[in-house]
Amino acid sequence: MENQTIAAYNLLERVARYDNDMNWMHPNRSKMVEVALEVLSLPLDSPVVALDLGTGTGWFAHAFLSRYPSSRVIAVDGARAMIELARARLKDFEGRVDFVLGDFRDLGHLLGPRQGQLVFSSYALHHLTRQEKLEVIQQALAFLEPGGWFLNADLVVSASPRIETRIQEIRINGIVERVAGQDSRFATAADTRKFLDELELKDQDKPLTLTEDLKILAQSGLTDASVFWLEYREAVIGGVKG
User: Fold this and answer.
1) Domains along the sequence of the chain with CATH
2) pLDDT tens-digit map of 80-107
3) CA angle 154, 142, 38 (to 5 degrees)
4) pLDDT tens sequence across 128-140
5) Would you list the DSSP string of 118-182?
6) pTM value?
């Protein structure tokens, strides 16, 4: 992950329309969070301490805090503008969220000796190189108590260029259909492709194949690394700290 990735999410124009853009570009976002939370085998009154890697606008954290009313979240993000949006979204959970401004590649330094039972992330770790992703997950496991869960809802890329091309066509057509002329950035398939290419270059997107992501989970020390949900280029994966 480059520092320019963090800077991109501090741009006021980008942040202001972030959630609306996510709804257009990633309509499965809520479904992915629902699947991740279904995977957890915890009583709803459990006093879970969770770590949110790249909290963004607090989308995943809001769903988690709502489902587990005795829980707490440590919400980490490198962009101050995103942290402020997350504060607004999570205002009803005052006292249950600890916001941490900083680069989660330095997670051990940011967290210190704190520990918890869950680490989750959504649409954040694909900005990392393979080595960075491995190191971040290893640091996240140091936070996890034995038996704790790591869950990631994020992007993947196909190992087959032909399949990836077709998935991208489906992706572009879906965005154009959902936007339905409401935004000139997505007026046509060509406009949408141009916008996404520029956005992904600016954000330094580096999605890996699903197979490679699962290898990283296993290499990091998670047991039973598994895929819980997959549709085209989006997946929910995770595992348990042994």
Assistant:
1) 3-157+205-241 (3.40.50.150), 161-200 (no CATH)
2) 989 999 999 999 999 999 999 999 999 9
3) 40
4) 999 999 999 999 9
5) EEEEES-GGGS-HHHHHHHHHHHHHHEEEEEEEEEEEE---SSHHHHHHHHHHHHHHHHHHHTTS
6) 0.91
